[in-house]
């Protein structure tokens, strides 16, 4: 899974990126469009894997990992400037979800490009850039479609595309992001290749000041943003990136103490991943053994055969049966043998719908 971090300049993207990846990318470099984004990976924390690893003592323990791409700030009005920005935004189109960081912290030492801190305005400004970028793609594509239609190329297909694009164009021209349009699954499928930025699932991260952590003011801001930006493809989170970066530099126990001290219940690192899983409709299933204990990611609703395919296409192709026990039943039973004798570790067929936390052992033959 790849998550792209976008936002106006100087809103704290790289600070958050460092917090998420425990990285050390240079903060406040005022990176310009055209510079390479920071790329880093983070494991998805999973206490079930920690526990299973203690029990099985495997040679290898593997968590799911996510990749974060920290893009340079996108100044207001920049999409209108052309080619370089288009290239920059193509990086943002490669991702599975966007994290849109917006400044909500006051700090005289960090000048705001627009002269004042105004979270709502900034959110709109970046949304506008994303919308203009999508609009640019649509306008170009519509020209091509018209040309094809004149020549009679793939008439039926082009007509369908034209209708969808016309609807998208109208929405964007009235400043409505595509995610709010109620795009049908069929339209989504047809449009997937274009990777529209305003159709991407998006987590808005309000980067608040340290003194606002857990405050009613922060909740109030989140509620106001939610009212305006709510959609089934957006989620709102509140973090203090600067503090999160400090937490990331501490070891487990010290981090816990520090968090208790300032009243942070869940690290941004965990919070964003959990939100992302929920937003993208993902679940984790687990495999265990002496060699490896490992978590895997699949879409909610995946069949056992499909889930096997996430490990190796041979498993999906040659699927016979899956032995399945939920993590909780396994812990209750104490061992796989016990779970088997209790009947909670049982055989399932290829259509079985895998649940989050299922421990699965695939039987296959190729
Ligand atoms: N007070 C405070 N300062 C922050 C916070 N997050 C970031 N900053 C400061 O804001 C400045 C910019 O932070 P960056 O993380 O580099 O921001 P950015 O969005 O990556 O900036 P560009 O890549 O240049 O667009 C730095 O001086 C940070 O220390 C925060 O939560 N609170
Ligand atoms: Mg940066």
TrEMBL record:
Residues 3-110 form the G domain. The keyword ATP-binding applies. Signal peptide: none annotated. Keywords: ATP-binding, Metal-binding, Nucleotide-binding. The keyword Nucleotide-binding applies. GO terms for cellular component: cytoplasm. It comes from the Bacteria. ATP binds at residues 10-15. Residues 282-365 form the YchF C-terminal domain. GO terms for molecular function: ATP binding; ATP hydrolysis activity; GTP binding; metal ion binding; ribosomal large subunit binding. ATPase that binds to both the 70S ribosome and the 50S ribosomal subunit in a nucleotide-independent manner. Belongs to the TRAFAC class OBG-HflX-like GTPase superfamily. OBG GTPase family. YchF/OLA1 subfamily. This is Ribosome-binding ATPase YchF. The lineage of its organism: Bacteria, Candidatus Schekmaniibacteriota.
